[in-house]
Amino acid sequence: MKGRRMLGAITGDIVGSIYEGHNHKSKDFPFFGQGCTFTDDTVCTIAVADCLMNDGDFADFLRRYVRKHPYRGYGGMFREWAGSNMGPYNSWGNGSAMRVSPVAHVARDEQELLDLAEQTSVVTHNHPDAVAGAQATALTMWMAKFGIDVAAIREEISNRFDYNLSPSVDDIRPSYRFDISCAGTVPQAITCALEGTDYEDAVRNAISIGGDADTIACITGGIAEVMFGLPDEIAEASLGYLTDDLIEVVDRFQSTKEETFP
Prior knowledge:
With about 260 residues, the chain is an all-alpha fold. The chain has helices at about 5-15, 40-55, 60-70, 75-80, 95-100, 100-105, 110-120, 130-145, 150-160, 170, 185-195, 200-210, 215-230, 230-240, 245-255.
C-alpha cells in the first residue's frame, strides 16, 4: 500500500470526474474510465497542502493555484472570488469539505484539527454548514487514522454535527440527486467510506450514489485512504493524471513529518 497522504482524495476526484454530469447508479464501472482527469477538487486540495507546509495564507494559496490551473470546473462564485480581492461569500457548498483532507494528516491534536479545518473553509465558505462539513470530514479521517471503529465514528459524527448517517449506501442510491451543499453531500460521502470494504470499494460506493460524483468521491477517498490505505497500482495510476508541479507537492507533503509542520 502506498502512503502518499491526500492521494486518496485526489484519486476519488479523478475517478469521479467523468460521472458528475453522467451519473452511474451502479458500482460496476471501469475504475479509471476514458476521459478521467483531475478537477478543481484536486487543485484546491493540493493548494491547502502546500499552504500548510509553508504556514501560508489559505486564500493566497488557493488563488495562486486557480491561476496556475484554470478551467478545472470551479464554481462560478469561487472563480469570481479567485480572480478578485473579495472576502468570503457565505457559501454553504461542498468545496470546503473536498479540500480539507490534508488537515487530517498534519494536525497534532483534535482541537488543532478542528481549527485548521475551519480555517481552510472560511476564506470562502464561511457559512456554518460549510464549516461543519469540513470539520466533519476531517474528524472522520482523524478518528479512522487512530483506528476508531466504524460504529463509534458514525455515532460521534452524527451527534456532533447532527448528521443522519443511518441510511445505507443502498438506501441512498435510488433517490439521491445532484446536490452541491455540504449538508447534502458530506453525510453521504462519509457513509460511502464507512461502508467500504477497502479503498476501491469505498470509492465505488461514492460513484454509485450519483450526484456531485467527483466531489463525493474525493471526500470519500480521503477518508478511505486512512481507513484502508491506497493500493500501489491505484496510487501510480492517479499520479499519471497529474502535472509535474502537482506531483511535486504530493511527494513533498508525503515526506514532511507532522512534527515539522509550522
